[in-house]
Amino acid sequence: MEAASVTAPAALGHTRRFGDRIGDAVLHVITALAALLGVVTVFAIIWRVFVGAWPAIKAFHLDFVTDNVWNAPLNQFGARDLILGTLITSFGAMLIAAPLSIAIGLFLSELAPPAVRGPVGTLVEMLAAVPSVVVGLWGIFVLAPFNAQHVQPFLSSFLGWIPIFANGQDKVASTVFTAMIVLTMMTIPITSSICRELFLGVPDELEEASIGLGATRWEMVRTVIVPSVRGGVVAAVILGLGRALGEAIAVSQVIGNFIPLKRSIFEPGDTLASRVAGQYQGAVTNLQISALIYLAAILLVITFISNLLAQRIVKRFEFQQAGGE
Prior knowledge:
Helix 3 packs antiparallel against helix 8 (217-246), helix 4 (114-126) crosses helix 6 and helix 8 (217-246) packs antiparallel against helix 11. This protein is 72% helix and 0% strand. The protein has helices at residues 18-60, 63-66, 80-111, 114-126, 132-159, 176-200, 204-212, 217-246, 249-254, 272-279, 286-321. The protein has 2 domains: 2-60; 63-321, MetI-like (MetI-like fold). The chain is mostly helical. The chain has 11 helices and no strands.
């Protein structure tokens, strides 16, 4: 029996026109230039900051980081307590903001009725649109007096035996604690918004399968939703931390702008960003200007380190989720 002959298919014609190829080339060039522009901008910022800080770097070396004196008339400058103030206010704010943001994201994505999700989500995100100076003014006239009269004495009465919670009975309005609360308010919108989108991105099949196997809603959240997106949640928290590290105006309005830093968070303090914002325009010597830019360089290094650590943590979580040891 003779095998049936099969006719070879005709070759496909060229469907791409010359203009399409030009469009591809233009798209590659534009996107490559955009990416290159971002890299050049970062390096330009780093170069300009360190050039401006170079006179102070030559004058104080690394002693600037460990010295605690800031006396502009005598040209004595040190950043130790400013660095500590920045780290305490930022990380303290994230200790409060991270669980609140995760809770808000879970409520809006899993628990809230549809009629509530829209309005509440919009109001939370609107906090991000409030200017820093307005948040600072609210902190001065509302939050700081309330903290001084009620919150700080209450916390100090129970936790005053711990040095960081001492002296709450002094009822000081402009304190490190007030700055922490302000930073918490300013980081919650962006962190909770990202967390909500992450939780909504978890496939419904996984959630339904967990419920179908007898898990409660809390068990489903704990064993399915959070583990699926924990790398993204960490990235959202670190993004909020970067926002807290760089905030200047609102913090300078409520923190008291005072060094040396006391042990208690219920005392005034200062941060790198607020010191730069508060004194740069009024700087009277070139060395003082350079010292303030040196503070900005330190803040830049802290921000880069925190972002690098965040990337390592996220990659570690992704590796574990993929089944790595």
